[in-house]
Amino acid sequence: MGRITLKNVSKTFGEAKVIPSIDLEINDGEFVVFVGPSGCGKSTLLRLIAGLEDVSGGQILIDGKDYTNNAPAERGLAMVFQSYALYPHMTVRNNIAFPLKMAKMDKAAIDKKVTDAARVLNLTDYLERRPSQLSGGQRQRVAIGRAIVREPSAFLFDEPLSNLDAALRGTMRLEITDLHHQLKTTMVYVTHDQIEAMTMADKIVVLNRGNIEQVGSPLELYRSPRNLFVAGFIGSPKMNLIEGAYAQSKGAKTAGIRPEHLLLSKDSGLWTGTVTVAEHLGADTFLHANVDGIGLITARCDGEFGVTYGDRIYLTPDEGKLHRFDGRGLAIGNAGLAA
Amino acid sequence: MGRITLKNVSKTFGEAKVIPSIDLEINDGEFVVFVGPSGCGKSTLLRLIAGLEDVSGGQILIDGKDYTNNAPAERGLAMVFQSYALYPHMTVRNNIAFPLKMAKMDKAAIDKKVTDAARVLNLTDYLERRPSQLSGGQRQRVAIGRAIVREPSAFLFDEPLSNLDAALRGTMRLEITDLHHQLKTTMVYVTHDQIEAMTMADKIVVLNRGNIEQVGSPLELYRSPRNLFVAGFIGSPKMNLIEGAYAQSKGAKTAGIRPEHLLLSKDSGLWTGTVTVAEHLGADTFLHANVDGIGLITARCDGEFGVTYGDRIYLTPDEGKLHRFDGRGLAIGNAGLAA
Amino acid sequence: ETLTIATVNNGDMVRMQAMAPEFTKANPDIQINWVTLEENVLRERVTTDIATKGGQYDILTIGNYEVPIWAKQGWLLELNKLGDKYDANDLLPAIKGGLTVNDKLYAAPFYGESAMIMYRKDLFDKAGLKMPENPTWEFIGDAARKITDRKGDVNGICLRGKAGWGENMAFITALANSYGGRWFDEKWNPQFDQPEWKEALQFYVDLMKDAGPSGASSNGFNENLTLFQQGKCGMWMDATVAASFVSDPKDSKVADKVGYAIFPTKGEMKNHGNWLWSWNLAVPASSKKSDAAQKFISWATSKEYTQLVASKEGWTAVPPGTRTSLYNNEEYKKAAAFAGPTLAAMQAADITKPTVKPVPYTGGQFVAIPEFQAIGTNVGQLFSAVIAGQSTVDDALAQAQRATQREMKRAGYPK
Amino acid sequence: MARSVTTRHKVTATIFAWIVALLIFFPILYTIITSLKSETEAIAGFNLLPSFTLESYITVQTQRDYLTPFMNSVIISVGSTILALIIAVPSAWAMAFSPTKRTKDILMWMLSTKMMPAVAVLVPIYLIFRDLGILDSRIGLTVVLMLINLPIVVWMLYTYFREIPGEILEASRMDGAGLWQEIVYVLTPMAVPGIASTLLLNIILAWNESFWTIRLTTTNAAPLTAFIASFSSPQGLFWAKLSAASTMAIAPILILGWFSQKQLVRGLTFGAVK
Amino acid sequence: MATQNTKTLARLMMAPSVLLLLVWMIVPLAMTLWFSFQNYNLLDPSSDGFTGFFNYEYFYTDPAFFQSVWNTLVLVGGVLLITVIGGIAIALLLDQPIFGQGIVRILVISPFFVMPPVAALIWKNMIMHPGYGVLADISKFFGLQPVDWFASYPLFSIVVIVAWQWLPFATLILLTALQSLDGEQKEAAEMDGANFINRFIYLTLPHMSRAITVVILIQTIFLLGVYAEILVTTNGGPGYASTNLAYLIYRVALLNYDAGGAAAGGIIAVILANIVAIFLMRAVGKNLDR
Ligand SMILES: Nc1ncnc2c1ncn2[C@@H]1O[C@H](COP(=O)(O)OP(=O)(O)OP(=O)(O)O)[C@@H](O)[C@H]1O
Ligand SMILES: Nc1ncnc2c1ncn2[C@@H]1O[C@H](COP(=O)(O)OP(=O)(O)OP(=O)(O)O)[C@@H](O)[C@H]1O
Ligand SMILES: [Mg+2]
Ligand SMILES: [Mg+2]
């Protein structure tokens, strides 16, 4: 129903080679999340799959059939655009109903579907509004609604929750997961939110400058990043990467330790440092400290940790969770696997 | 330089009363964050301050002077729009340079400022592009650039980082904080990101349906939410709110306990429950469990907690961090204050 | 049968349309479709159609300029079925002559006109002037200057100035004719380099400067008519039909003060300009309904038609200038003060011999060759520039000479 | 926009706009006023208060049949414009949303088909019409006007379409809309003001086309331009009558404009695109 | 956006209009070309046969030819200047909230509803006539000598009349374009401290550039062919002061009935028009694909 295969796909805009060459297999029913720095080509990749852009090279297969040159409408995919792309002349109701109308569904069924979607999306009160009369988050929800009422062979979501508040985002996350469980439809999902990526994905694809850095399950990526890029990208706050004497002592060019794998103490520890910034989130505290002989290190600890700028603290890395990288930035062995 | 006072400000769109009546004082140099559910009126409030919408009632004072009826340009504020509002026919360079040109700054100075901003924003390679040739996150950064090159009496940011990846978001967060420290300019910032709100704000304003629910420092709100709404809104995952026997035993209509304040164990504890969902984020695990006699509870624990669907677990609330609310949803005393 | 009749939008033609039901009543098997257009447009339209054999019309309204040209091309049918009662001999000889080629009548005149002077008797009296029986240009020039009263918004004389072969060139040609000038010599050489033209044009230009209205270079028949009716002209020389308008108290403020006189001459030269024009009905060779068409033409140009109009709208409304009988009609003479002068003007015209010197062409205020429209308009432009003060008489004449030579050479003259 | 403007601003703008509008409209206003005068009044100098006589209208009405040319004008101008729209919309769509290196050249070429002065091709066209037997037929005229206006229609539509963000059309493709549905349900409604303005402007252009409409018709298909041509500069006073005839020729289109002006300038609104 | 798929479709969709216009262009053009090398006078069927380039030579040696080319350019340029600048100004004015907006708009665009010959008649007789035109009445009211527009400033008068007719077209297109300017961009510019003039220069004008280009190009094509107004008012005079190329061709075609000469004139006009168009495309064409 929705196996998507990219074979050697590349894309250039004028001079700029945005995607050099990508091979990727997305299995039927899988929930795949694309992550990567802003501008790395996530949206472009989605648009290539959707057929909104021509590939510059390579093939796109859906269920084994070559769809490289088919029109978007023929591919039977649903998409949430990063920029929403709502129909400004239609009400919210009609925006959501549009794909169903196109599929020639009968009126009563459409109505029901739209009403259901609106309820899930907290849009019931806004059904008769035009997009221009909505808040940013409401618009984004309409865009989601337009996709989820359908039963496509795959869903493409481009940062669908970026403008929603945490609570709503939590709900929506569950709704989409539910939808996925119910329909078992392939979903390709772009997000910058680590929580979304980690909790929703069957498989995360880490992109960097149009190249795939690593593909794997969320915890795989968290535990055994294949290289420095993935190590730095997955996890927030990001992994501390340490070069120099300490790394060499561990037989690596670079040693990596996640902020949450540092034990903090006011009395004793392996390393000593001075607090530069203390960010108190309530549930956690992020400490940025200048560690003697090592440099700037971020540590995370639960709850409140009563220090402020200039205080001396002690940090001890959980060496069982240390990541080691060689001179080319590739992981050596993998300490983290054990965790 | 940038004290903003809202007196009894209200706003209606046609029939809809979006902001019933708001009084708010933003001190000079303060970093104020607006949070609230999608559609609660945050953008509207910013637009009222900016002068892009007429107030339906009340007054807006800047440094004590009544600016209610002044044009946006006269207010000397800089704004990042939620929808970017870039100039489509100008290159990135010209987009960023535009406000400076308007201020008749000389060419060399403009060039320097733009180049600096572009470097900070990772946009150096894109300076000659048009907005339509940029990715979503790049566009958003241009919008930020356009604001931060200026030296306004106050900055208004409407979800400026929503489309950036975690790493970049972290950097930008620090950049904006830095900017604030350097310029000591008032900043009004709308965000859905709890981390941004908690780490950047001097003062958080929690909005709900156009009303202010609570104003306070980040930790104040985290520790002593004034009512159920704030309690539920601040903190992620959100606070567990428990009614019934347990709450009554604590002398409240509703008892609230944050997920991070639940001690988890596989052997023993105050409550027993069955795991329904376990979300593994790497650094933490969010557990959703059905607790006997109490209902659905979310708990958060550090690192990996090796349970899956159906496992029995034991939870013990840290009663020192319990929040109690009366029948009208207002907080009673405040247990959390002690933490 | 349906006849499609192309006609101009002049008052008499409009009246004909109003009368047409009488004809269709008498001939129930014939219906009529009217195509009424402004003169220039009609001419283009009809010419294109007839030259390309489009066959859109059954009856054409054409001027005596076209009739001989078209007849020679074989584009017109001879009118030989006008009926016994038609009385072709009643037609004014000058008019009829212009419509006859090789002794065959190719068009029936609907109305005819020449040019004459209309003047304000009251202003003449005031200035102590009296219009002589046979006015000369010298007299006209003096009188015009005397009458001129710029402050009182009275111009001594109004003359055509708008460029066009049927506009200013009609008048200027007639003027030049009376000065003894001619368009072409016997070998078809243009004559603008001759002294007669220079004299005539200089006279015209000076007169307009001294005694003409402002904006003269864009005045045509209608503009001058309006000026005259408003009492802003002491004299006006133009087509005789104008008389019925200026004497109509409904539109004219000066209706009771107008006098008429014959077109002037130059000194002793007995040549009254030879302006002669008629609107005629003709049947194109392409028409498949020539019997019906001739029936209609016969009706519309008959004496009965004159009677019909007279009975319905009064004698002043009948189409003038075609039949001798009309001018013998006492009722008409009584009703129309201009009848006598009109007839006199028309009888004074001889388009076969427009000027004292011999010419290879026919035509009074025009030259009946196909090329004349373009040449005349072109020359008209050059002359109107002089009136507008943007060119001099000498320059204009020299340019006119060159332009005309050029066109004549192109057309292959002498033929 | 969301902000209301100060009354002072509005009053100033209003005064300016009315002055400009009245200046521009004056010649027409004066024509209408003149049409209500008697002929002598009409030339008696500046006067904005006519005697309100309908004399000229009555004369015009009795002299010439108004209804047939009016109907012809309607059929020809509306017909040719709609025909042109039907052909032009897909073409403009293609050029606006799938431009190639050639697009600009094609656009320019289309316009260049109008460069030949009408008088120069009168004879060829007349001959063609004669041979096809469509002289003086509504169909022939409709087709000619359609062809004359087609480049303009394409151009105007192209401009308006280009203003529409492509992403919205992409969204509709993702939603399973075929080409036809995309044009009908998404493109057209969004471009309504542009299309309306194209429609009206071209109806007017066709309505006012006074070369071919006169040259290629005689009676059956003659529209109001021919009607007017029969009132311009006859012998005698005609100002009031011409004014009346002009007013009658302008009135229908003026009224159409009146009703559609909101549509015309409503503007394309694209509120929901980031 | 533009994928291979849509490109193929696009070709198909352009086909009808392109084919129709191709026929509409080629058939008359071919006939015109053919005639232009023939000796063909409507009034003289006896004249026929191939004449080579004689018709062309004859046309461009016409004493009015060079002035008519110049007049054509002045007419086009003058009208464009007035209509584009005036159109922008009026569009901006009408974009403001004003009382009676609907009526003002209809008043402003109504000159477009007037048929060109009628417009010329109105202006000639009622407005500009030195005897009883409104302008003359106004001059007289101020004790001034009325201006004889068509004699003293013939080309200028025609420019005024034609500009009056085309101003609404420019206004309407520009106004529609103006109204599609995204509100938030305007707001952003306001926040950036741009005043009205700067917003106009940096935001509105670039936004309208395509519409302006379209106005310029479309009007140029129409203005190159203006002749009815000249015919009604000045007949190309005084002298050749208001003779433009189209009127010159008219003189040849419909006064002389020289179909061959007119055809040659037409071809020359097309060539000149193309030169103008290419020049214009160079100057403003890039605005089209923005
Ligand atoms: N032009 C309008 N007409 C009517 N209602 C409007 C209009 N603009 C906004 N609203 C409504 O006002 C409310 C507040 O909108 P606002 O944009 O301020 O929300 P917000 O807090 O910024 O939300 P988000 O986080 O989703 O951006 C919303 O419910 C919205 O639907
Ligand atoms: N039309 C275009 N022309 C040239 N470059 C383009 C075009 N569209 C996108 N790009 C470039 O391609 C790269 C990838 O863009 P894309 O939109 O896929 O990024 P993204 O991963 O979605 O980023 P974000 O997270 O910021 O949305 C970017 O560097 C962008 O500047
Ligand atoms: Mg993207
Ligand atoms: Mg918002």
TrEMBL record, chains A, B:
Molecular function as annotated in GO: ABC-type maltose transporter activity; ATP binding; ATP hydrolysis activity
Subcellular location field: Cell inner membrane
Name of a matching Pfam family: TOBE_2
Record key words, sorted: ATP-binding, Cell inner membrane, Cell membrane, Membrane, Nucleotide-binding, Transport
CDD domains, per the entry: ABC_MalK_N
Entry-linked PROSITE patterns: ABC_TRANSPORTER_1 (PS00211), ABC_TRANSPORTER_2 (PS50893)
InterPro entries hit by this protein: AAA+_ATPase, ABC_transporter-like_ATP-bd, ABC_transporter-like_CS, ABC_transpr_MalK-like, ABC_transpr_MalK/UgpC-like, Mo/tungstate-bd_C_term_dom, NA-bd_OB-fold, P-loop_NTPase
Signal peptide stretch: none
Family: Belongs to the ABC transporter superfamily.
Name the UniProt record assigns to this protein: ABC transporter ATP-binding protein
TrEMBL record, chain D:
Record keywords, A-Z: Cell membrane, Membrane, Transmembrane, Transmembrane helix, Transport
One of the GO BP terms on file: transmembrane transport
Membrane protein topology class: Multi-pass membrane protein
Domain of life: Bacteria
Subcellular location: Cell membrane
InterPro entries: BP-dep_ABC_trans_perm, MetI-like, MetI-like_sf
Protein's name according to its UniProt entry: Carbohydrate ABC transporter permease
The organism's taxonomic lineage, starting at the top: Bacteria, Pseudomonadati, Pseudomonadota, Alphaproteobacteria, Hyphomicrobiales
From TrEMBL, chain E:
This protein's name: Sugar ABC transporter permease
Record InterPro entries: ABC_transporter_permease, MetI-like, MetI-like_sf
Transmembrane segment boundaries: 12-37, 69-94, 106-123, 155-178, 211-232, 262-284
Signal peptide as annotated in the record: none
Keyword Transmembrane helix: yes
Biological classification of the source: Bacteria, Pseudomonadati, Pseudomonadota, Alphaproteobacteria, Hyphomicrobiales
GO biological process: transmembrane transport
Species: Rhizobium deserti
A GO cellular component entry from the record: plasma membrane
